[in-house]
Amino acid sequence: MTAPFPPTPLKLLNREQAILEFNRRVLAQAQREDVPLLERLRYVCIVSSNLDEFFEVRFADMLEAARDPLSTVTGQDVDRVGRAAHTLIDEQYHVFNEQLTPLLHKQRIVILNHADRDEPQRAWVGKFFEREVKPLLVPVGLDPAHPFPQVANKSLHFIARLSGKDAFGRDNRIAIVKVPRVLPRVIKLPANLSDGRQAFVLLTSVIRAHLEELFPGRKVEAFSQFRVTRDSDLEVDEEEIANLRHALRSGLTTRHFGRAVRLEVVNTCPAELSEFLLEQFGLPNAALYRVNGPVNLVRLNELIDQTDAPGLRFKPFEPAWPTGRLPRHKSIFDKLKKSDVLLHHPFESFDPVVQMLREAVADPDVLAIKQTIYRTGAKSELMDLLIEAARRGKEVMAVVELKARFDEEANINWAERLEAVGAQVVYGIVGYKTHAKLLLITRREGTKLRRYAHISTGNYNPKTARLYTDLGLLTADGDLTADADSVFRQLASLGKFKAPRRMLLAPFNMHSRMIELLGQVEAAARAGYKAARIVVKINALTDAELIHGLLRAAQAGAKVDLIVRGACMLPPGLPGVSENIVVRSVVGRFLEHSRICYFRWAEGDDGEALFLSSADWMSRNMFRRIEVAWPVIDARLRQRVIDEALLPYLHDTLDAWQLGPDGRSVRISDSGISAQQALMRRYSDGGGD
């Protein structure tokens, strides 16, 4: 019998504030003295990138919900989240200006404003402006024939107030200057002008210094750079459209001009100009963000990339090839006939996955290849291999998720290229994103057909496989490969759901099975089993039913450890409610991305279950996406996952944060053990095999 919910409904933590809290943890990386200086600056850039997406998607959705009279989101909720965002952004610029910039100066890496530049440097900048910048700038003086221009999402602009009258004697005082995206935002000065330093100028500083040259005969009385962030979720009416690809291709052209949600200006921007801009974009004062520096810190990645200072970066790390389990230059298919191979990225290389597909393309006995495509990037050897396989006459099926946010254009392009060579391309199920990570190869062996599969918690992107922690399984297991084939059939045929043998498939049975397993642990704890245990490692926890399942198990006496990288809406540590639950977040060199669910309800192998999955514990993943989870049956592999991907993170004292019941997280320590660093050392020493 399950325990009742708490007498009064438990107030879950706010999702948007939980996302901002995650970014506060990322920003803390920029303040760590044990992190190399340029990497600290990169974390500042990452926060900017994350916040852009937060405003484009989450905050935009929140604003929309607040307008719906049936929604539970209130104006007070929006104000509270907005204030938290203002605080975080102010802190971000403080870290950049007051902490990192002085440290960069000490390393003789400087960003020179106009006032800092000497005459030879100003002369060089002037010539650069005249040659590279000015020809691409089009200042627009506003009047009835020149209305306020279309301002694309996140594009850089200047606004200027001019003195006097224009050439036609009219008193049009306001002008807008668009800065094309093709212009570099960070320019490195020549060495002979840098006095032994690495000196940079920002494009905004170059334009500021020469802004008046764009308005001959008039003075610039006041000015500011500005940037507007817009709602960028691609919306299509999936019940009305006939062709999803064509609809999304059309939507990409209008995405950049969605509803404005945030306006950024420099903190010296006169109120007259900021109020004018707010009025043009239809924004309230709360949407104005005055920043002490460039309005787009993301572009400082260009400074990092141009700086010659290897000692100020992370030491290079080369992922290991699992030589003991998968000898190089030998057939991967032959190896998988004997045993499965588990890969732990980025500590182990993603190359075996590419090699498996490469081998399949070259093998005349391989008849068919099926793969899901979510985020592969604009350049992808894997996609090139699928195209080559189709050219060679193999049956190629690609399930391309066209609505992978901000990767839509790349995926549409891959879909068109695959179709052009005869591959069968499907776009999953209308209304459900295909987020599962599956590769299935069918090979003729004698008189039989045999399947080989790769199943993963992460994307088919070799670049991010070096930056994200993920787990992937190479297998010839008959049950798992049959399940993978049934998933592809489901996506192509749209037939009735038939439960796979071992896999769980969202939106059909994954959520209900997770609830069952939570209930199984809860029942064991109520029956007196002292070792009842749940450990879940995911990117986000926001599904209310799963949260309450965790609470019931914890209240029954089970020990619950959650390793949640990002947003977590479960408030841990509440007496009598969640005191048996510990929520950790690990933020280190690599982005934690693997999803692992462990349950123990009795002694022995039959008393535990461990699943790897593509899905986070969010309602969207469980009910509005195609996701897979699969059990790790082999006891040896299961123990390896526990030993490498769970236990080290439960004992991390360097990169780990602990969440409090109020939604604020506290870093556990500034010294001790880093799970990621320990795994890097282990694999560098060959210990992975």
From TrEMBL:
Its cofactor is Mg(2+). It comes from Pelomonas candidula. This is Polyphosphate kinase. The keyword NADP does not apply. Catalyzes the reversible transfer of the terminal phosphate of ATP to form a long-chain polyphosphate (polyP). It comes from the Bacteria. The gene is ppk1. An intermediate of this reaction is the autophosphorylated ppk in which a phosphate is covalently linked to a histidine residue through a N-P bond. Belongs to the polyphosphate kinase 1 (PPK1) family. InterPro entries: PP_kinase, PP_kinase_C_1, PP_kinase_middle, PP_kinase_middle_dom_sf, PPK_C_dom2, PPK_N_dom, PPK_N_dom_sf. ATP binds at residues 50, 468, 565, 593. The active site is at 435 (phosphohistidine intermediate).
